[in-house]
């Protein structure tokens, strides 16, 4: 017997004709060897590809002639395309330019080309060659459409803590057949665990989601992991590298004097903290104070800038503050202090000389000059120094 699908199955035929055709196929056609090879052929293609749907009648014998070649897609039992001799193929429902007749009517070849395959094209295609007077012969082709997954990673924004949380999620969406998702977590060692969930969509595709779990310590921050997606619709596995990010609020705010009249405020935070400088004791900021990013700058040193300055570090997860007390000694004062000091020294020297001269003149030996005993107040701006001088003077 030849691999011909029996016309007995064509339920569009009236029963009486069916019976007649059954008889013809099983007796006459069988012996003359008119056949459509490749019945039950299975074509597997990735979405977007091009399929050749072959249909070729071999061994046609006179008096049979081909009167029509038609295509239908199950489960619909009506033709969607009809090919007649010497005319363009006729689309029954609507024209779909993705189907192209590439066969040759006179060579009994009814092959079709279907380009830009979509998921909806999946199904069984049946080619029916109508012979006169013998009847119909047909062949079926099963078209399987594979859909590659759309892969993505989602940072689950873990913040520092001691409870296990989802660190990052890998998604392989809309795949057919279901994609496999796996995390490579060698760098995390025992600290990691992965979950998997598969959801099916109405169109037959599935989405596979895998989350990587771990305890969000700062120790695992910046560790490299990889999500590996495998799918029959992908020519090779897809690898999605990821660097684990553990987020935390500003840790400690450190203020340091980077240069003369410049204070820098630094902190550790993730994401990086925003630094805001403000003056704590006065609501209105001074025009002479410049803030350049994290640096507070005093371009001119005037005593009206004296005060408490606050640096605040803020990010999504929290804020932290620190203060610096700025005391500016004006330049004019510094000069006058130096002059005053010099004057004092000169006076002391003068007094000493005068005593020396006086003691020599009177020939009074053994008496110490009183002036050398008292301490000369040093030029100082600190409160403690002034206190010291005051105590000695008492
Ligand atoms: C039928 O036509 C197709 C497209 O032109 C061709 O590839 C195929 O070889 C033909 N079949 C035979 C058996 O000649």
From TrEMBL:
Pfam families: C2-set_2 (PF08205), Ig_3 (PF13927), V-set (PF07686). One of its GO terms (cellular component) is adherens junction. Keywords: Cell adhesion, Disulfide bond, Glycoprotein, Membrane, Repeat, Signal, Transmembrane, Transmembrane helix. Its main location: membrane. Residues 37-144, 148-231, 241-329 form the Ig-like domain. SMART domains: IG (SM00409), IGc2 (SM00408), IGv (SM00406). The chain crosses the membrane at residues 338-357. Residues 367-394 are annotated as: Disordered. It is a single-pass membrane protein. The keyword Transmembrane helix applies. It is found in: Membrane. One of its GO terms (biological process) is heterophilic cell-cell adhesion via plasma membrane cell adhesion molecules. Belongs to the nectin family. This is Nectin-4. It comes from Liparis tanakae (Tanaka's snailfish). The lineage of its organism: Eukaryota, Metazoa, Chordata, Craniata, Vertebrata.
């Amino acid at each position: 017997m030849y691999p011909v699908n029996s016309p007995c199955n064509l339920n569009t035929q009236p029963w009486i004709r069916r019976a007649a055709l059954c008889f013809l196929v099983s007796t006459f056609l069988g012996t003359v060897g008119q056949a459509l090879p490749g019945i039950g052929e299975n074509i597997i293609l990735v979405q977007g590809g091009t399929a050749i749907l072959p249909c070729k009648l071999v061994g046609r014998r006179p008096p049979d002639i081909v009167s029509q070649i038609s295509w239908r897609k199950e489960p619909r039992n009506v033709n969607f395309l009809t090919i007649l001799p010497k005319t363009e193929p006729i689309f029954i429902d609507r024209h779909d330019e993705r189907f192209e007749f590439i066969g040759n009517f006179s060579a009994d070849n009814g092959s079709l080309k279907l380009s830009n395959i979509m998921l909806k094209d999946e199904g069984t295609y049946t080619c029916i060659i109508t012979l006169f007077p013998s009847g119909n012969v047909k062949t079926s082709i099963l078209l399987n459409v594979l859909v590659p997954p759309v892969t993505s990673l989602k940072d689950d924004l873990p913040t520092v803590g001691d409870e296990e949380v989802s660190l990052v999620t890998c998604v392989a969406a809309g795949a057919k057949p279901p994609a496999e998702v796996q995390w490579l977590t060698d760098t995390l060692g025992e600290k990691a665990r992965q979950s998997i969930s598969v959801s099916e969509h109405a169109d037959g595709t599935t989405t596979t989601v895998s989350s990587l779990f771990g305890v969000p310590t700062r120790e695992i921050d910046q560790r490299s992991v990889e999500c590996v997606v495998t799918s029959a619709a992908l020519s090779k596995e897809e690898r999605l590298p990821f660097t684990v990010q553990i987020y935390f609020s500003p840790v400690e705010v450190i203020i340091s004097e980077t240069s003369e009249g410049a204070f820098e405020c630094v902190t550790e935070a993730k994401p990086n903290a925003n630094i805001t400088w403000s003056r704590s004791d006065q609501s209105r900021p001074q025009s002479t104070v410049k803030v350049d990013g994290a640096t507070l700058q005093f371009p001119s040193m005037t005593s009206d800038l004296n005060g408490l300055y606050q640096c605040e570090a803020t990010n999504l997860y929290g804020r932290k503050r620190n203060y610096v007390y700025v005391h500016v000694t004006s330049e004019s004062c510094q000069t006058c202090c130096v002059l005053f000091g010099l004057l004092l020294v000169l006076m002391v020297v003068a007094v000493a000389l005068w005593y020396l001269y006086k003691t020599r003149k009177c020939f009074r030996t053994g008496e110490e000059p009183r002036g050398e005993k008292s301490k000369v107040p040093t030029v100082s701006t600190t409160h403690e120094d002034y206190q010291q001088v005051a105590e000695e003077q008492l």
